[in-house]
Design a protein that fits this description.
Pfam families: Fung_rhodopsin (PF20684). This protein is an all-alpha fold and 243 residues long. The chain has 9 helices and 2 strands, in the order ααβαβαααααα. Helix content is 66%, strand content 2%. It is elongated. The chain starts with a helix and ends in a 36-residue tail after the last helix.
């Protein structure tokens, strides 16, 4: 019941017309009435209620108790559940048929609500288990299958109802991982040769200190050893004329 209310509450955000909102209200009322009535029928299946535990005693007790037929109740419950789930999971198809959106988004939403088809399938299998129980074949197995498929129906409905939130969280986590991987992949790392070269340069600059260099002698000029220019006085060469 509460899973159906969660789905129908989500449908209010998809409703675009007054008729759609009114129909969602009606489905809320049907879900609440169906859930409450099912619980009350199970709790008050016999009058007095103690006959539920004493009806199989041998010899049977004569207390004038009246009980409902549980097999007929299971049949009616399964059929109503199948019809209700089919209508509820088909509602988004009609609500979104005139909404402008990307085709991928549309089919993604349809696939999300299509998981509800598994819920309908579980309801059908539960109806088959009820039929086997009514025929008296393998009573223990059939009775267990009735409640097994009922549990599958409820749990799949819960997972489908949480599908939208799970999708959003999954996409956010995927984007964060992709950005982190891209930043690490495109980060510029220094090459090993550059690292060794910088290390050698640091070692050389560390050990080559001015106080460890040899001091020049006193007789040597401290001027910069640059290009030197020397001037030579050239004497003119005398030429002898021939007599």
């Amino acid at each position: 019941m509460f899973v159906k209310h969660a789905w129908l509450t989500f449908y209010y955000g998809l409703a675009r017309t007054r008729l759609q909102r009114y129909f969602t209200h009606f489905m809320q009322f049907v879900a609440a009435g169906f859930g409450i009535s099912s619980v009350l029928v199970i709790l008050l299946q016999c009058q007095p209620l103690s006959h539920v535990w004493t009806k199989d005693l041998v010899p049977p007790t004569e207390d004038g108790a009246k009980c409902i037929n549980l097999i007929n109740f299971f049949y009616a419950n399964s059929i109503i559940m199948i019809v209700n789930d089919t209508v509820m999971y088909m509602m988004p198809v009609f609500m979104l048929q005139d909404v402008d959106m990307l085709r991928g988004h549309r089919w993604g939403i349809y696939a999300l609500f299509g998981i509800g088809g598994v819920v309908v399938l579980a309801s059908i299998l539960r109806l088959l288990a009820v039929h086997q129980l009514a025929q008296g074949h393998h009573f223990s197995e059939s009775y267990a299958l009735v409640f097994l498929w009922a549990a599958v129906e409820n749990h799949v409905g819960i997972c489908a109802a949480c599908g939208g939130a799970i999708k959003q969280k999954s996409l956010t986590a995927y984007d964060n991982i992709r950005r982190s991987y891209g930043s690490i992949r495109h980060k510029s790392w220094p090459t090993p040769s550059l690292v060794s070269r910088s290390q050698n340069t640091e070692d050389r600059s560390y050990y080559e200190r001015t106080d460890s260099l040899p001091t020049p002698s006193l007789g040597v000029d401290r001027k910069d050893a640059g290009m030197r220019t020397e001037l030579y006085d050239l004497q003119p060469v005398e030429t002898q004329s021939a007599v």
